[in-house]
Specification:
Elements lengths: L1 H25 L2 E11 L3 E4 L6 E7 L2 E4 L4 E4 L4 E4 L5 E4 L7 E2 H9 L10 E11 L7 H5 L4 E3 L7 H16 L5 H21 L5 H7 L1 H12 L7 H8 L3 H12 L3 H19 L4 H8 L4 H12 L3 H6 L5
Helix pairs in contact: 1-7, 4-5, 6-9, 7-8, 10-11, 11-12
Keywords: DNA-binding, Transcription, Transcription regulation
Pfam families: Cupin_6 (PF12852), HTH_18 (PF12833)
InterPro entries: AraC_lig (IPR032783), AraC_XylS_family_regulators (IPR050204), Homeodomain-like_sf (IPR009057), HTH_AraC (IPR018060)
Length: about 325
């Protein structure tokens, strides 16, 4: 039993090593965009955004609706929409909805909406942005919405929620480096919990659960600079070419070499944007022969050159 538990822990740690590498490369940036006490009736509509958003029931429950479903959220529940779909939150399904921007601006001006009568709710809403130029299969592997229930008061997730709540109250502001960093921590905690608690995963997350595919991903993430070929990957993973290609394609809809190429360019993007390394040094770190080869692949993939990104001209 101890040996089995040790094996499961080692396997889980390996999974989260890969996950943390992906998260670090995508550079998620957290923020709280709404935090308020509310008196019923109240309702807020939220437009679609290409970023994950979440809502926390600090006090009282509420209802959330999307184009696909409605969920009842209880006190101390958290609901996340990883793909930023259009949705609404309200005390009841019949409440009139106010645009999120209007509700947020009112709070920012010190004149929050929904204050007439007895306070029934306190909610906190956050989001995590990332560099949209970078794509990764993890973003497609997440569901449109997931609901965290039965979060105990001493759970690390709720400890982080309380810290964010306390910091907002202390500073009387939703905007600070501390709040933003804690929001990122909360997002990572929720993502890890979702993976740990759900048996039926798909895409990249399902690949992390497959021992052989996870080994391949671990090899590529640990050593992107190696001169990998399909043959050397198969040899290291102990799989035939046909089996590896079939299993990888089934879960990630990519070949192993296509995944490696995309991952190398994602790492290149972040190193170009957030470091002072030369392009030759970056090429050496991620497995390109030289700066010229990397420059050509980078421009072909992103539509702009590394120098344009570094200068901030990549939007033109």
């Amino acid at each position: 039993m101890l040996k089995e538990g040790s094996h499961r822990l080692k396997k889980q740690d390996s999974t989260f090593d890969i996950l943390d590498d992906v998260i670090a490369t995508l550079r998620f940036r957290g923020s709280i965009f709404f935090h308020s006490d509310l008196a019923a009736p109240w309702g807020i509509s939220l437009p679609p955004l290409p970023t994950p958003r979440f809502h926390i029931a600090l006090h009282g429950g509420f209802v959330i609706g999307t184009s696909e479903a409605q969920l009842s959220i209880m006190q101390m529940d958290i609901v996340m929409l990883p793909k930023g779909d259009m949705h609404w939150i309200a005390d009841t399904t019949s409440s009139e909805l106010v645009p999120c921007q209007l509700a947020g601006d009112a709070c920012e001006l010190g004149n929050p909406l929904f204050q007439d009568g007895e306070i029934t709710n306190r909610i906190m809403c956050g989001m995590v942005e990332y560099d949209e130029a970078i794509s990764h299969p993890i973003l497609d592997a997440l569901p449109n919405i997931f609901h965290f229930t039965h979060i105990e008061a001493d759970n690390p997730i709720w400890t982080t929620v309380r810290q964010i709540d306390s910091e907002i109250k202390r500073t009387n502001s939703r905007r600070s480096v501390i709040i933003d960093r804690l929001t990122e921590v909360l997002f990572f905690q929720l993502l890890h919990r979702y993976i740990a608690e759900n048996e039926h995963l798909h895409g990249f997350l399902a690949a992390l659960r497959n021992p052989r595919l996870a080994k391949v991903l671990q090899l590529l993430h640990d050593n992107p600079e190696k001169p990998w070929t399909l043959a050397t990957i198969c040899n290291e993973a102990g799989m035939s070419r046909a089996s590896l290609q079939r299993k990888f394609k089934a879960e990630l809809d990519l070949s192993p070499m296509a995944y490696l190429g995309s991952w190398r360019l994602a790492k290149a993007y972040q190193l170009v944007k957030n470091s002072s390394l030369t392009l030759d040094n970056i090429a050496d770190r991620i497995g390109y022969a030289d700066a010229r080869t990397l420059r050509a692949a980078f421009k072909r993939h992103y539509g702009f050159s590394p120098s344009a990104l570094r200068k901030g001209d990549n939007q033109v």
